[in-house]
Amino acid sequence: MPSTNSTSNNYYETAANVPTVDISEPIQCFKRHEKFSFRAAVDFVAMAIKAMFPVYLGIRIDYPFIPGYLKHHGLYYFTWVGTILAAEIVLNNLIDWKTVLGTDWLPGTMFFMAGWLFYYVGLSLWMVVVKVPLREKVGRAKFIMISEVFFSVMWAFIGCGFRAFCQSVGTIPFPEAIPDVASNLVGFILCQTGWFFKGWACTLTGYNSYFLRDMLLDTPNSHFVESSLYKYIHHPTYTAGYVQILGAAIYYRSVPGCIAYCCIQACILLFVHFVEEPFIDRTYKASNYPAGVEVGEGKKKKKK
């Protein structure tokens, strides 16, 4: 696997080869050391992070923070994660995208555009066009299950797509004066920070809120009170949580990726303003609350 620490533009010009997900490579790093040492351990950890980082971007590690999620959905979750891992290995190691499509940058760009089109257009159509007739046809319980699968695939797809975009569109790389180790470290920390805020939001809002259940069923739920994280950050998963996207762009030293992050952040806030907020205002007015639903001061906590 070519090194991702090269400061030359060759890294960005040969995206078909960089970086593949080779799970065996972290183990191979020990062969470069005659015996176990602290340096060998650090080398192993660094190589493991680099090998698994593309997969890490495609899975939702915030889900396990939802109270009770793994207890009821553990098999489904780990099957899903394993499928993504297998797909990443196959797509990166067995398919030469440059040979198939004749270009370095087109595969990642197509993947990225398709993912976000899936997100903004697909999610909007699901809520506006598909939701009511499908819910009436299959029933509320099965509709929730189908929607969860749809959302999970969608969120995994956009994560993998953004990573592919950062890898394949490198015509404007970071200045060589910025060392690779610095960009890798900052990018990884930002990704961890984003997942931290998403995990925190999961523990506060619970399963029903995080998967847009009130929007899917057009029924307010009782778990919306303004407190803790939501008291200080209005949309933590859409703002603080989205720094993971910026972290991925910095990790891959992709200026186009950083620009794309700004566009993504703007688009998701527009989606919240025009799609989610109207539902919140319409559904959670005081006159619409059923008995027993407690509401904190100010706006209720945001979903996802």
Automatic annotation (TrEMBL):
InterPro entries: Phopholipid_MeTrfase. One of its GO terms (biological process) is phospholipid biosynthetic process. Its main location: membrane. It is found in: Endomembrane system. This is Uncharacterized protein. Coiled coil: none annotated. GO terms for cellular component: endomembrane system. It is a multi-pass membrane protein. The chain crosses the membrane at residues 44-63, 75-95, 110-130, 142-165. Gene3D superfamilies: 1.20.120.1630. Keywords: Lipid biosynthesis, Lipid metabolism, Membrane, Phospholipid biosynthesis, Phospholipid metabolism, Transmembrane, Transmembrane helix. It comes from the Eukaryota. Pfam families: PEMT (PF04191). It comes from Seminavis robusta.
